[in-house]
Amino acid sequence: MTQDKPPAGDEPAPSSQDLREQVEATREELGRTVEVLAAKTDVKARAHEKATEVKQQLAEKTHLVTSRLRGKATHAAHLVQDRAAEPVRAKATAATGQVRDKAVHIGELAREKTPEPLREKADQGRRMARANRAPLFAAASALIAVLVIRRARRRP
Residue spans with biased composition (Basic and acidic residues) (predicted)? Predict the structure, then answer.
């Protein structure tokens, strides 16, 4: 091993124990450096980490957008209900009941004639709709109310 500077006259030469400690410290530092470089070159692990990060961001954004849409649908339904006259609200409520009854009837007919794999997918959709029931009903009621109002305005 060569030294960059020759030892000066007043500095004592390092002992063999000091040299061993320096070599061991250098080995440990080199080991850590190699580990860091190996981690940077592990493309599969880095890709997995990035995919996990992107999934988390997507889940957060999806939750945010869903919350906003629910709020807007509820707000729109309340606005329509507040602005609609009482007879229009009564008709919308009656129409909602009729639509619900017909939907149940059609659903039963469709269930009887649908193959099993499609039924499983439909059940999955039904569970999702039930989980988001309030915004769906609010949006349906708002749509029905708008349609009833438009129809009422057309009649002389």
Answer: 99-125
